[in-house]
Amino acid sequence: MRILIADDHPIVRHGLKQMLAADPSATIVGEATNGDEALAMARKLEWDMAIFDFTMPGRSGLDLLGDMKKEFPGRPVLILSMHSEDVHGSRVLRGGAAGYITKDSAPQELATAVRKVANGGKYVSASLAEILASECSSDPQKALHEKLSDREYRVMWLLATGKQISEIAKEMGLSPSTVSTYRTRILRKLGLTSNAALVHYAVRHQLVG
Amino acid sequence: MNDVANIEELEPTEPRAEEAPEKAKILLVDDEPKSLFALQELLSMLGQNLMVAQSGEEALRLALKNDFAVILLDVRMPGIDGFETARLIRARERSKSTPIIFLTAAADEMTSMFRGYEVGAVDYLMKPVVPEVLKSKVAVFVELFRKSERLRESEDKLRRLAAHLISVREEERAHIAREIHDELGQVLTGLKMEVTWLAKRLKDKVLIEKTDSMCGLIDSTVQTVRKIATGLRPEMLDDMGLIAAVAWQAKEFQKRTGIRCRAKLPAEVKFDIDISTTMFRIFQEILTNVARHSRATRVDIELTLGAEQIGLEVTDNGVGIQDNELHARKSLGLLGMQERALLFGGDVRINGSPGHGTRVSVTIPLRKPK
Predict the structure, then answer these.
(1) Could you tell me whether strands A2-6 and A49-53 are parallel, antiparallel, or unpaired per DSSP bridges?
(2) What share of chain A is helix, strand, coil (3-state, %, to 5)?
(3) Cis preceding linkage at B128, omega within 30
(4) Contact B317 A104 (CB under 8 A)
(5) Distance, CA of B227 to CA of B198 (rounded, Å)
(6) Of the candidates A70, A82, A108, A107, which has an alpha carbon nearest to the alpha carbon of residue B228?
(7) Distance separating alpha carbons of residues B321 and B356, to the nearest angstrom
(8) What is the DSSP letter of B180?
(9) CA-based angle B88:B89:B91, to the nearest 5?
(10) ipTM greater than cut 0.90
(11) Best mutation site among B192, B235, B268 for testing chain A: the one with the most A CBs within 10 Å?
């Protein structure tokens, strides 16, 4: 499998080569240091898959990906990025990438991604899969916390971040007993029984950060 | 020494206003050449630029092209009379606050005096005029004109300075964010690859534990680098454009404050990065205000993209901003939003009603002014 890599940082290219060296079927045929060079190499060289950095000098990101998909529609491009998946992941996949992998992923993950993409598949990490799933769930109303009123939602959030009833009352300009009533209602709506369970729920659904 | 040089570089072509003040323009309007001549003679010693018109029409034409310190206007003229001329002059944007002194020959025109004041006269002089009175009155208006000119100039300078500071700060933030994110981030990535390479070759359990913890440290450092860089300038804005960045910021805001955000956004497209940045920074400022002052539990965000302009409306259900808060001198954040929008010919409107939340509407034309 002939691989074209592009990254403006020598240290990352070095690491990539080192990791790909472990796979005897992989040969690196070209090493570009910026987007324009990457495109020029893609036109000149024989290659089967490309691994590109998302942010490079010159043409890069979604623009470069678009060019690549237009000129070489059949060949997979794996995007390697410093940016976290929730920010760029789904857009890059929609832009035609065969996979999106962050640079802080474990090297094994990169190896898996390369193998999968080389075989014509798409590579999506577990965390990106979760983001995609939540993005395309057709009815967001189904999440239990969506059933909370705006005020209940905020009380829930304040409880989840460890605030006491009295603090919440002060912050929201309500009486402590009203806040307690809200708490009871929130727990019922979310099907929970304790503050600890509520914290867990909030973390699992990424409602706090 | 260097500092002085830098300051001067900031405004290289600015001439010194005080050294040679331009002459103030004064318009004299009278249908009788004799009176015109007399007025000119009297006022010539003020050393200002005197312009003359013999009819209302001519006066209007001149007022359209010049900014006068004061206009001396004869009431009785054939054609458009003095009152009508004054009304038309004051109706125009450029000359809407130009002071007008009426000249009238007859002492029996008390009623017309009121008419004169109604159409914007600031003073009245009876003919024949007393030279000293005329001169000192005109001199007062010339002085006033100079002062307001100077005020306008310094306002303009302040505004340009503010604009300069905003764009410098934005550039600097973008630069630092890029450096941190790219350079530091990439080195960490490389470092992690090296450590992993090393870990694979180790047999000793204790050493493997060490490399594992090194990897963990590198990972959390990468997270920190990302957080710092995004705080300075969200990469989203440059990579994906304003609409994606607003969606992201709204989500982050909800996560950070527990205030529910609902965003209505158009399909994602990228457009002018400076306008995008301006809109995004204003949006961030609005959210900061919501979190700080509103006690809201919900924020509705609507971004609309027209052919001519881009609009943002942010409504919260909090306590509602009061008029006195809106005009308080301290509200520099609000002033900052206005200034940012103004740079691109846009504007920011803020409405609050007690108990019914606050609504901020921002519009920015897509085509840059000038």
Answers:
(1) parallel
(2) 55, 10, 30
(3) yes
(4) no
(5) 28
(6) A82
(7) 9
(8) I
(9) 65
(10) no
(11) B235
pTM assigned to the model: 0.73
The residues of B whose Cβ lies within 8 A of any Cβ of A are 181-182, 185-194, 196-197, 218-219, 222, 226, 235-236, 239-240, 244, 248, 252, 254-260, 268, 295, 297-298, 317
> What is the full per-residue pLDDT of chain B (370 aa) written as tens digits?
444 444 444 444 444 444 556 788 999 999 888 888 888 888 888 888 899 999 989 999 998 898 999 999 988 888 888 888 888 888 888 888 889 998 887 665 666 677 777 777 778 888 778 888 888 889 999 999 999 989 999 988 988 888 888 889 989 998 999 888 888 888 888 888 889 889 888 999 999 999 999 999 998 998 899 889 988 988 888 888 899 999 999 999 999 999 999 999 998 887 888 899 999 999 999 999 999 888 899 999 999 998 889 999 999 998 888 877 777 755 778 888 988 998 899 999 998 888 889 999 999 998 755 4
Q: State both tokens at A117.
A: 């993409």
What does the angle CA B175 – CA B177 – CA B180 come to, to the nearest 5 degrees?
Answer: 105
Please say whether the beta carbons of A75 and A27 come within 8 A.
Answer: no
Helices (H) and strands (E) in chain A, counts: 10, 5
| List of chain B residues whose C-beta atoms are within 8 Å of the C-beta of residue A161 | 258
Q: What is the largest CA-CA distance in chain A?
A: 73
Asked if residues A95 and A116 have their Cβ atoms less than 8 Å apart, the reply is no
Length of chain A: 209
Contact A18 B197 (CB under 8 A): yes
> CA nearest A154: which of B358, B316, B280?
B316
Helix (H, G, I), strand (E, B) or coil at B72: strand
**A87 and B194: CB-CB below 8 Å?**
no
Interface of A with B (CB under 8 A): 8-9, 11-12, 14-16, 18-19, 54-55, 61-62, 82-84, 87-88, 91, 103-104, 106-107, 150-151, 153-154, 156-158, 160-161, 171-173, 206-209
